[in-house]
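Appendix B. Chain record.
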Amino acid sequence: MSTAPVLRQLAEAFNAGDWPKLRQMVSDDVVVVDIASGSEISTGADAFVRGDQNWRNAFSDFAVEILAVVGDSTHAAGDFILRGTHTGPMPTPWGEVAATGRKVELPFAMFCEVADGKVTVIRDHYNPTLAMSQIGVEPTAI
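Structure tokens predicted for this chain:
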């Protein structure tokens, strides 16, 4: 059975701002590896949801477009684009970035491990330099 529908459901829950559903879809001890930030790791469902809420707070109109998802019985991968307007403070590993009002279009990929219908590991790949340049911030200036 394919786990690909799990990624579609995660994207739909994010787009809807349905934080309880998002939390329900990951294991209590989910591990999130943010490859773009130098492999920053967070652990736990609450930390995962908080991270997604940070994106939503920084980009209130953010929406995830699903380009493709694939999966087997224990893994799922997806190709996505996030689009939105930078309307609120954005926490980054380099410091907080104040709202700029600029638009962002950020391609990203997720590679996940899935057990018992819940995501247990997420490896998130995106280009932080692209995101920063789109909002008019040089990463070295943060």
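Further analysis of this model is presented in Appendix C.
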